[in-house]
Amino acid sequence: MHSGLLDIWVYLSASPLLGLAATLAAYLAAWHVYQRAGANPLLNPVAVAVGLLIIFLLVTGMPYSSYFAGAQFVHFLLGPATVALAVPLYRQLSRLRTLWLPVCVAVLAGVCSAALSAAVIARQLGATPVTALSLAPKSVTAPVAMGISERIGGLPSLTAVLVVMTGILGAVLGGKVFDLLRIRDDGVRGIAMGTASHGIGTARAFQISAEMGAFSGLAMALTALASSLVLPWLVRFVARFL
Q1: Separation of alpha carbons 214 and 77, rounded Å
Q2: ∠ at Cα 97 (91, 102), nearest 5°?
Q3: CA distances from 41 to 73, 168, 206, 209 (A)
Q4: Are 171 and 198 in contact (CB under 8 A)?
Q5: For the chain, N or C: smaller number of CB within 10 Å?
Q6: Cα separation of 214 and 84, whole Å?
Q7: Is 126 exposed, middle or buried (0-12, 13-18, 19+ CB in 10 A)?
Q8: Per-residue pLDDT of the chain (242 residues; tens, 9 = 90+)
Q9: Domain chopping of the chain, boundaries
């Protein structure tokens, strides 16, 4: 048995499949822990899987570039998964037609408040202007956020980390915040989750209800669009204060 496992390790370690296998194994383990804990949001499977992968890379000494050579297959699937969010959204189309104006206003307000509050608070706490600018698009889905960060003078690599952290925090704490504020409508909860916590928050929203997930997916897409149009102009306007 030990010899067989050793042969598998030798084969995987010499191919890009190791990164893919490690990613899938980490997420399956994290999902098992999440289910055994009664779907406790503090044990969000994405956060746990990230922690397990960090430990794996440290223990094996594998460079991140080698890991990503295999894990990029999962990264590629983010595109089709995002497009697939249109299906549950279409099922909410009748309600969306009556709410399009409040949704657009809410998303725009969320984009501006999230970017400004993050950048201003960071500067007040002593962060450099570059760090503050890297924080501004933290609530936008990662590929778009990195592009915005580069355009406004931030660090795309730092923004990517902040985006993931924001998504995990939103997924873990969002439901509790809604309960404390007594927000019960799944459509409203979904818009707030998607605007603040992009894809990771949307995944959590789908675990709560299909309606919440659909509106969260819509808000995520609208946030990416609004941020790419508004943030460069907004940052230029407030740059003198950062």
Answers
A1: 19
A2: 115
A3: 27, 10, 13, 15
A4: no
A5: N
A6: 10
A7: exposed
A8: 455 555 555 555 555 677 888 888 999 999 999 888 887 777 888 888 888 999 998 988 888 888 887 777 777 777 677 677 777 777 777 777 788 888 899 999 999 999 998 888 998 898 888 899 999 999 888 888 888 898 888 888 889 889 988 988 888 888 889 989 898 888 899 999 999 998 888 888 888 888 888 888 888 888 988 998 888 888 877 766 55
A9: 2-76, 86-241
Q: Say which residue the tokens 């206003």 belong to.
A: 105
How far is Cα 85 from Cα 83, in angstroms, rounded to an integer?
5
Residue type, 153: G
- CA distances 168 to 11, 69, 96, Å, are 33, 24, 27
